[in-house]
Design goal:
This protein has about 240 residues and is an alpha/beta fold. About 35% of the residues lie in helices and about 30% in strands. It starts with a strand and ends with a helix.
Amino acid sequence: MELLPAIDLREGGAVRLVQGDFDRSTGYGDPFALARRYVEGGARWIHVVDLEAARTGEPVNRAVVLDLVQGVEAQVQVGGGIRTEADAAQLLEAGAARVVLGTAVTETPEVVATLAARYPGRIAIGLDHRGDTLAVRGWAQSSGATLDDVLDALAALALGAVVVTAIDRDGTLQGPDTEGLARVLARSAHPVVASGGVGAPADLEALAALEADGRRLAGAIVGKALAEGTMSVKEAMAACAPFG
């Protein structure tokens, strides 16, 4: 199971929200310094999200994202406001290893299909959910679609990953939604990446131990615990490694 330390961007700086709430935001300073710390700790991936773009569709932090993509010595997965073919192409051709499409999954699924065919294995879908219902536009709106709806509709695409975020767990450090993730593992043949709630190495061990039909999680995104230093990258990777 791969560790993906998260760097969320707002007004050019690194922040973390609680359950996606812009009014419950904590700043962590320079995103480049945070990325360097994670890479120096041994991280092979960095997960970068433009929070403002996720909500509005306007890529206000795109220059920072591109600098991270091109300047970090790790594979960079990018999400937040990627809703068009041009958005995805710019990031992938600049060197992003993978881009995550969320709002486009339910609003313009034809864009997702086109990109998956053009960039096989480099397009991920972001399934951000409250209960079984997916949220879109920076988690500000309900899509009306369910996890199962989307997983079934996109089953045939050459996706690089399905990134599943339990919104109610995100930023809380209260543990991941292992039950929900197990259901996704059982339903989807795509690599599944977990997000939301990880607060300690034991949480990562629980994720790495999840199994459905002989399949395990491909990765886990960790944000607040690493940013605040309650868990180091080294500790996090050690928790993932025995099951890798």
